[in-house]
Design goal:
There is one protein chain. By secondary structure, this protein is mostly beta strands. The chain has two domains: about 5-70, no CATH class; about 75-140, no CATH class. Helix content is about 5%, strand content about 45%. It has two helices and eight strands; from the N terminus they run ββαββββαββ. The strands form two sheets. Strands 1-4-3-2 form a four-stranded antiparallel β-sheet, with no helix packed on it. Strands 5-8-7-6 form a four-stranded antiparallel β-sheet. The longest helix is centred in the N-terminal third of the chain and has 4 residues, at about 35. It is elongated.
């Protein structure tokens, strides 16, 4: 079972992904804060797995509904020595300082560097312009 949170009624649909950016100022005084924002980690990408029927009032979204979410799997670049399918490791973003075609894998949105991940699958070698030994992997944040 995933985590339960609240999300805007218009966004509440199974399969929808979002990145939790952190709590807004208005959330600090809300009676629903514990279930809404405290169960999520900032800068993480989540996928809605189940939508509940009950509707609540919200200062930011107007109406929100309870949803069950899980961390979204992501495709990332990892150093070859860290890639073992099924392994739990730490994701370290690749900071090379150049703009290239692998940037979305090396610095993925929704997965901060240092996050503990499970390597779900090895998707193959990455052509790194600096010659680094990198692999494209599908990971699940833990």
């Amino acid at each position: 079972m995933g985590k339960v949170t609240l999300i805007g009624k218009l966004q509440a649909r199974v399969g929808w992904e979002f990145i939790f950016l952190g709590e807004a100022t208005a959330c600090k005084r809300c009676r629903l804060r514990a279930v809404c924002v405290e169960s999520l980690q900032p800068e993480r990408r989540y996928t809605i797995k189940n939508v509940k029927r009950r509707v609540f009032k919200c200062q930011l979204h107007g109406e929100v509904v309870a949803v069950e979410v899980e961390p979204s799997p992501l495709e990332v670049a990892m150093e070859s020595r860290s890639v073992h399918e099924g392994a739990v490791t730490q994701f370290i973003e690749q900071n090379c300082g150049i703009a290239c075609w692998n940037k979305s894998l090396c610095k993925p949105v929704g997965l901060p560097s240092g996050t503990k991940v499970k390597v779900e699958s090895d998707l193959g070698e990455i052509d790194c312009p600096l010659g680094r030994s990198l692999r494209k992997c599908r990971v699940i944040p833990l």
